[in-house]
Amino acid sequence: MPTRKYRRTSDKGQPTHFECAKQKCKWMGTYDQKAYKPRGNGFTDHVCPECGNLEFYGLTEEYVKSKKL
Predict the structure, then answer these.
(1) In whole angstroms, what separates CA 42 from the centre of its chain?
(2) Do residues 3 and 62 touch, judged by C-beta distance below 8 A?
(3) Could you give the strand order of the β-sheet that contains 28-30, starting from the edge strand earlier in sequence?
(4) Can you spell out the DSSP letters for 1-61?
(5) What is the predicted pLDDT for the residue at 40?
(6) Residue with more model confidence, 3 or 63
(7) Is the dihedral of CA 51, 56, 30, 59 positive or negative?
(8) Which residues of 11-30 are buried (b: 16+ CB within 10 A; e: fewer)?
(9) pLDDT single digits (tens) 9-58
């Protein structure tokens, strides 16, 4: 049986690795590797460092280990 790639919302804990939600980009990395984008009033957003997208998928630990990220 193949391993599941994305985390379910019912999975316990926070994801450690992420994938960009844009189909053409698909950047993979950790929380610390995300770029910052100022939003105004001192707030910032985490964005994809390659395309600037704001949405990410959380990856499962099994998938991360199989890809050796």
Answers:
(1) 23
(2) yes
(3) 28-30, 17-20, 56-58
(4) -PPP-B--TTSSS--SEEEES-TTT--EEEGGGSEEEEEETTEEEEE-TTT----EEEBPH
(5) 85
(6) 63
(7) negative
(8) eeeebebbbbebeeeebbbe
(9) 667 777 888 999 999 999 999 989 999 999 889 899 999 999 999 999 98
